[in-house]
Amino acid sequence: MNAAAPLELSFDGWRAAAREYLALGVPPHEAIFAATGKEPLLPGIAVDRAAGRERRRPPARVPAGLVALGRTVACHSSPARWGLLYRGLWRIACGERSLLGNPVDEDVFRLRSMAHEVEKDVHRIRALVRFRALPETAGERYVAFHRPDHFTLPLAAPFFARRFASMRWSILTPHASAHWDGGELELGPGVAAAPSGSDELEVLWRAYYASSCNPARLSPALLRSHLPERFRSALPEGSEIASLLRAGRDVASSRSNQRAARSASSGHRESPPPEAPASGVDGGAGGEGLRFTARSAAVGTVRAPSLARSVAARGQRILPHRGQRQ
Questions:
Q1: pTM more than 0.85
Q2: Local confidence band at 226 (pLDDT 50, 70, 90 cut-offs)
């Protein structure tokens, strides 16, 4: 994979600066990692803070888990990621070799939370990228635009190179871009907005999306969870979602009105369900009923209140008395 210099140095640049700080004995609260250029992935070392210090630490042996975690956390958009990574490195170098194995540690929890957010963002790129065919002098190229929450395109691009190996495509984001010509993956600078142009297949895709969607089963809350509104503008089917949600509400309202009309015409009123027997009490004739115990709740013996009520009405006992064999 070929990459532009600022992207190549995202994690490696921090590692070089962190090694220098660690060798000079700079504690985490004095270490500064600031962007030195326009590219926000590039950390810089504050030379004035480290000037005049003597090297007093040998090179530290870093666990492979911290390196793997650091490469993922480096793609997070929070500026605090560099200082947090260095604090973890400092603590490990000072003797806390099993730090990453403590999930309740505050620093470890924050690092793993950042890594989880990055992995979730990579999944969204894979799921939400939509290509459109644009003509070029060398032939047809498929172009997609996406706005990820973090700097995750370098992690997601190899998936598309394997998945669409026979296509010529480009994925554009505000932070970076990825280009595949059929044999080599290249990373470059980002673009601010999606390129203009349309694809005749988008009309077919929107028609397919609308026809395959069942408005009666749409869940707005679940849709917002899996497809937040900030990602919909870059999707061809994004323009159809609002109308589909309105259709879903109309269908739900129509069905509710139909049920109310049927109930009114038949004069039938639905009675509330009977109350379940109290926990820890035997009910029914002659004390024979459903016996609830802490053990039955723990092992999940009673799974449905309707089943419990029917058994209690017949005067049968689900659980034997204490001491009786199962």
A1: no
A2: confident
